[in-house]
Each structure stands twice: as structure tokens, then as C-alpha cells.
What does this fold into?
Amino acid sequence: MKFKKVILLLTENTDQQIVSQTVQLCKRLKGNLFVLFTIEPHKISRLSSLTHQKAEIVHRKIEEEGWRLLYHVEDEAVEKGVWTSLHLENGQTTNILKRYAKAYEIDVVIVKRKDETKKVFVASPIPVIGL
It folds into this structure.
């Protein structure tokens, strides 16, 4: 199976190892790398109540962290000669992934394997690789 279009789903827990592995995979397969960070509204409200901060402040902090992670992946990909497209979206991750899979004809989703991402494995219309 050829993976010409790969989407890496970033979370605040994404580590360097998964980024490097994904970039290397895209380089070997000469694939395009779409990088997605989602901000889910229910997480914002939950973090807001736990930290006693306004939802807008929590949202801004998460958005800033998302862009920091996205640019980090882009730097590594550019260094390795891999085409990238960065995306930050608000909404439910599984719905956004479905929309991206169809709109961009994505071949595979790469995600860090952890309990929180089980919903991605179940809901994705395309193959998912958990690293």
C-alpha cells in the first residue's frame, strides 16, 4: 500500500519520536505530510473549570501550543525535504479527521498511541497507525 498523503494528528502529548518517525516515513515514501492540531471545545471548558481560568485564556494558551508544535514539525520536515501543510482546527477531532480524509484524499492517519486516541482508531474512515 502506498501512502502518498499522510496526516499526523498532534496532541499536547506528542513527542519528538513520533514526529521524526512520521517525517522519515513521508521521506521514504515521497509522501505529503499534513499536520493537524485540534482544539476540542469540551476540553477547553473542562480545563477552564479545573484551572479557574477564563475559557478564552485557556483556548489562547492551547492554540499557541498547537502552533508551536505545528511549526516544530514543519521545521523538521523542511529540513528533510518533506512537503508539509499545517492545520489548526476547532471542533471534535474525529469529525475533523473525517472531513480532512475526504477533502484532501488522505491515505493514512498517524497518531500517538494512548487511551485518549482510541476514538480515532474506531471512527477513522482510513487506516490509522499508532506509534
